[in-house]
């Protein structure tokens, strides 16, 4: 992968990264062998990226709660996605939590997810959250490290997933 000119930042979805978003997300879906809704969504996105960005950039109701989507971006390079669920449902309190994220494969193992989550927690502060729940599959060592590097305190395992709380400290 090319060197990034500057560290990525967590931003609202933007048309600037059209090519790298579609390439990165498609490659990961292909590697996962997925022919799922998301693959169809990516085809729709390629047809009208402006509309896609407007749709995913808005606060949307998913998992039964309002959610905000952010992209981790450096210049024209799309690195990953972070989603904040503004509150928990009983289901999300078991598995899912407040925040979900991924980094596209070529940019992994460079500290991006760790830094992206730190910025995501700053966004949670702006939303007025005082502590956030993160969950990850028991064997997901990279994600566990990302969460613990951001101060995640373990709170047991439910439905095969480890739960962690991160305090959102006032600035
Ligand atoms: C989990 C994920 C976001 C990590 O992204 P990343 O940018 O590679 O993470 P970082 O570079 O910040 O690495 C975090 C830690 O995990 C370690 N790590 C990363 N990939 C690893 C791997 N494949 N095996 C072992 N350790 C790994 C890093 O060395 C680092 O450890 P350290 O802090 O002790 O040095 C990424 O692998 C991913 O998108 N996975 C698929 C989606 C997913 O699992 N999302 C999380 C759902 S809860």
Description:
With 171 residues, the protein is an alpha+beta fold. The chain has one domain (9-167): Gcn5-related N-acetyltransferase (GNAT) (Aminopeptidase, 3-Layer(aba) Sandwich). 37% of the residues lie in helices and 29% in strands. It has six helices and eight strands; from the N terminus they run βαααβββαβαβαββ. The chain has helices at 18-31, 37-47, 49-57, 90-94, 112-126, 141-149; strands at 9-11, 60-62, 65-74, 77-85, 99-103, 131-137, 153-158, 161-167. Strands 1, 2, 3, 4 and 5 form a five-stranded antiparallel sheet that branches. β3 (65-74) and β4 (77-85) form a beta hairpin. α1 (18-31) runs antiparallel to α2 (37-47) and α2 crosses α3 (49-57). The longest helix is centred in the C-terminal third of the chain and has 15 residues, at 112-126. Coenzyme A is lined by residues 101-103, 108-114, 136, 140-143, 145-146, 149. Pfam families: Acetyltransf_1. Residues 28-171 form the N-acetyltransferase domain.
| CATH architectural arrangement | 3-Layer(aba) Sandwich
The CATH topology is given as Aminopeptidase
Number of H- or I-type helical stretches: 6
Ligands and ions found: coenzyme A
Low-confidence stretches: none
The biggest sheet, with number of strands, parallel, antiparallel or mixed sense and barrel status, is: 5 strands, antiparallel
Name of the CATH homologous superfamily:
Gcn5-related N-acetyltransferase (GNAT)
Spatial separation of the terminal alpha carbons: 35 Å
Give the helix/strand class: alpha+beta
Order of helices and strands: EHHHEEEHEHEHEE
């Amino acid at each position: 992968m090319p060197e990034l000119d500057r560290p990525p930042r967590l931003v609202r979805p933007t048309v600037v990264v059209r090519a790298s978003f579609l390439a990165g997300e498609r490659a990961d879906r292909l590697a996962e062998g997925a022919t799922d809704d998301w693959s169809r969504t990516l085809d729709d996105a390629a047809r009208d990226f402006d509309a896609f960005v407007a749709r995913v950039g808005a606060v949307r109701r998913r998992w039964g709660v309002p959610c905000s989507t952010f992209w981790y971006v450096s210049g024209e390079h799309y690195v990953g996605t972070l989603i904040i669920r503004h509150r928990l449902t009983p289901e999300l309190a078991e598995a899912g939590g407040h925040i979900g994220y991924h980094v596209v494969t070529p940019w992994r193992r460079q500290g991006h997810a760790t830094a992206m989550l730190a910025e995501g927690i700053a966004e949670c502060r702006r939303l007025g959250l005082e502590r956030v729940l993160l969950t990850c599959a028991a064997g997901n060592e990279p994600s566990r490290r990302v969460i613990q590097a951001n101060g995640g305190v373990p709170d047991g395992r439910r439905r095969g997933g480890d739960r962690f709380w991160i305090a959102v400290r006032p600035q």
